[in-house]
């Protein structure tokens, strides 16, 4: 039956038994979602309820269990319990429900183990990359000439190793992995929403994509601030190294107050 160019979901569609894949991925609701994205749903657009989900069936079943519980408790001079009747009226042969419960348990277990192993492997790989970069920095320092060494202060080298390389240890691998998977999830979510719901679901996703340049600008500003912080840290560390290296001269000439003021200003 068609109306205004749209095909309605007839009651014959509900009489067909859905396959296991359809039940697993809720494909039996695809037609309802597509129809709802095109126009307002009507009562006959929904699939008919199975017999065991109708109000008359569940009411009759619970009423029978409750009367049985009342009769049993009356004979034993006990107080009837409604919760026993509710449990008795609940279907016990829903194997798909039991299978889903078991699958959820295994899924949580596998997810927890995978998450811990992922974190461990990322940490190990980050440490390996950081160690390799630190080795390259120190190796480059040993190969520099005396003229080139005067262009770099000790504080700059220490800040480079302890600050920049440390960030690579902690965030590089996680960013690479989560960035790739997040991009794939975004594409899959956009396709499913456009297919099942329609273009009405895409403005939120588009707004989220428009926020990416905003976060990119914030990251760029943060990088500039970190660079300025690194310069200040370089100056502070160099000043501390000078003070420690020439502590005898400072004590001899009573320059403690002067260096204390310089270090305080640098901090």
UniProtKB/TrEMBL annotation:
Kindly list the GO CC terms recorded for this protein. membrane
Q: What is its subcellular localisation? A: Membrane
Q: Does the keyword Metal-binding apply?
A: no
Q: Which residues form the signal peptide?
A: none
Q: Which InterPro entries match?
A: ABC1_TM_dom, ABC1_TM_sf, ABC_transporter_C-like
In the bilayer, the protein is annotated as: Multi-pass membrane protein
- Any Pfam family matching the protein: ABC_membrane
Q: Where would I find the ABC transmembrane type-1 domain in this sequence?
A: 101-267
| Top-level taxonomic group | Eukaryota
* Entry's transmembrane regions: 175-198, 204-223
One GO MF term: ATP binding
Q: Which key words tag this protein in UniProt?
A: ATP-binding, Membrane, Nucleotide-binding, Transmembrane, Transmembrane helix, Transport
Q: Family, per the entry? A: Belongs to the ABC transporter superfamily. ABCC family. Conjugate transporter (TC 3.A.1.208) subfamily.
PANTHER family xrefs: ATP-BINDING CASSETTE SUB-FAMILY C, MULTIDRUG RESISTANCE-ASSOCIATED PROTEIN LETHAL(2)03659
State what protein this is by name. Answer: ABC transmembrane type-1 domain-containing protein
Source organism: Pocillopora damicornis
